[in-house]
Amino acid sequence: MSGPLTGLRVLELGGKGPVPFCGMVLGDLGAEVIRIDRAGEHVNPVLNRGRRSIQIDLKSSSGVDATLRLASTCDVVLEGFRPGVIERLGIGPGVMLERRPQLVVGRMTGWGQDGPWAGSPGHDINYIAQTGVLHSIGEAGGPPVIPLNLVADMGGGGMLLVAGVLAGVIESRISGKGQVVDAAMVDGSAILMAMMYGFLADGSWQDQRGVNRLDGGRPWYAVYACADGYIAVGCIETQFWVDFVEQMALSEDPDFADQHDSRAWPAMQRKLSALFAEHNRAEWERRFPSGRACVTPVLSMVEATQSPHNLARSVFAQAPGGGVWPQPAPRFSRTPPASPTQARKAGQDTIEVLLESGFGRDEIDQLMGHVS
Which residue among 65, 123, 182, 253 is the active-site one? Predict the structure, then answer.
């Protein structure tokens, strides 16, 4: 095991989406992550990589005791149940911190540990709907566009939990005291919108879709259809816009004389749409090599794995179990992480982990009897 988090021990209490994403990132960066899976749990071959899997019945008294014993050997515990659930199971943060005062308990929820909606169900789409994110994405006059589950689950959820628990670990090593990290996807979605809320505050952003500088409302920050795909244009800065206009043979067109003349934007977009549609994507890649003027092809997931730049940087790699996965990020000059290990089957490492953690054979047999 190698990486900047080598020596950090993490217990992950199952879950889907943001919690395994957090566990994956911590494991990618060198932490030892042990995941408690339920019997028959689906194993995502990428999100579940890089850690061992055990099965413990959290509803049994022996399972509760085993979980608390494991937690007392760890620096971090991750959990993604609704508020109050792990307390009812007998493995709440208060009990864990009594046994290990330095422990950092990272709690991932949708709506947070308090508030009128704390106990309500929800998914990524609901959290971004409540924070202005979903309203802000889409074409003018069209419906909101769902940005996969990248905003609340992964960015505002999993990455927020990564930042929170690592901040907690740093503080714990200074103070000698642990704490609970309340990471809520509604909070994380809101903070990802910080720049847009700043624009709204200073009057440079309209609270509408498709009419702003970064939502497709400008001809120089938009996606255009070509004959066989799409092209992304992001020439915000003047020097890139001038180069772009020149490469599009529009330097003499009066509609393109002033990049920021809003009266000309509709004409610009019409003309650019017509021009891009005349040629296939390969021709536009030839005219704008290596992202010249901030113009790039829109690649599919499969195409992205074969992009020359991505190949040169090894952004993706062949996964041990087949297929392709993203490599760990970010990169470190002195403590580079090792390549992630293949995702384990649910419960595959139960005996090994429990033996290492001081459990006897009889205890292990009893625990495994509860999950069989």
Answer: 123
Query: CB of 55 within 8 A of CB of 350?
Result: yes
Burial 248-287 (b: 16+ CB within 10 A, else e): bebeeeebbeebeeeebbeebbebbeeebeeeebeebbee
Distance of CA 129 to the CA centre of its chain: 18
**Catalytic-labelled residue, pool 28, 124, 153, 215:** 153
Each residue's pLDDT tens digit, 10-37: 999 988 899 999 999 999 999 999 999 9
224-238 as b/e: b if 16+ CB within 10 A: bebeeeebebbbeee
Neighbouring CB atoms inside 10 A of 289's CB total: 8
- How many helices (H) does the chain have, and how many strands (E)? 15, 11
Rounded to two decimals, the pTM is: 0.96
Q: Is residue 205 pLDDT above 80, yes or no?
A: yes
123 assigned to active site: yes
Q: Which amino acid is at 155?
A: G
Q: How far apart are CA 90 and CA 60, in angstroms?
A: 10
How far apart CA 238 and CA 242 sit, in angstroms, is 6
Q: HEC profile for 106-130? A: EEEECCCCCCCCCCCCCCHHHHHHC
Strands (E), 16-119: 32-37, 52-55, 76-79, 104-109
**E strand spans, 176-247:** 179-184, 222-226, 229-233
Indicate the helix (H) or strand (E) that contains 370: helix 361-371
Q: Angle at Cα 16 formed by Cα 90 and Cα 114, nearest 5°? A: 55
Q: Is 153 marked active-site?
A: yes
